[in-house]
Design goal:
It is built from no helices and eleven strands. With 121 residues, the chain is mostly beta strands. It is elongated and about 50 Å long.
Length: 121
């Protein structure tokens, strides 16, 4: 019941910056955490960053110190500020949201469509 729409991907030179956005609609009041994942061709999907409803953040080792995840709870928006981009950051980036469905703690994860980030000279 959560729909996620991403924007902001594109082509950027090494050392440059991009800001990805993810808009959540639908049953947003049940969301307990949101995150960004990425997947490069031939590789497994990789954690980039997550943020909980309480504001706690976690980052994958490859992006620590360079990427920042944030959210606007009022607007149901999530952002990923990507700085000092490297060619190895090239991937399809996916927005996700985790819902707590009931008092027993059942969860559901929804994913956006993905947006391509290409870091190249």
């Amino acid at each position: 019941q959560v729909q996620l729409v991403e924007s902001g991907g594109g082509l950027v030179q090494p050392g440059g910056s991009l800001r990805l956005s993810c808009a959540a609609t639908g049953r947003t009041f049940t969301i307990t955490s949101m995150g960004w994942f990425r997947q490069a061709p031939g590789k497994e999907r990789e954690l980039v960053a997550t943020i909980t409803s309480g504001g706690s953040t976690n980052y994958g080792d490859a992006v620590k110190g360079r990427f920042t995840i944030s959210r606007d709870a009022i607007r149901n928006m999530m952002y990923l500020q990507m700085n000092s981009l490297k060619p190895e950051d090239t991937a399809v980036y996916y927005c996700n949201a985790v819902q707590t469905l009931n008092v027993e703690g059942a969860r559901k994860t929804d994913w956006g469509q993905g947006t391509l980030v290409t870091v190249s000279p």
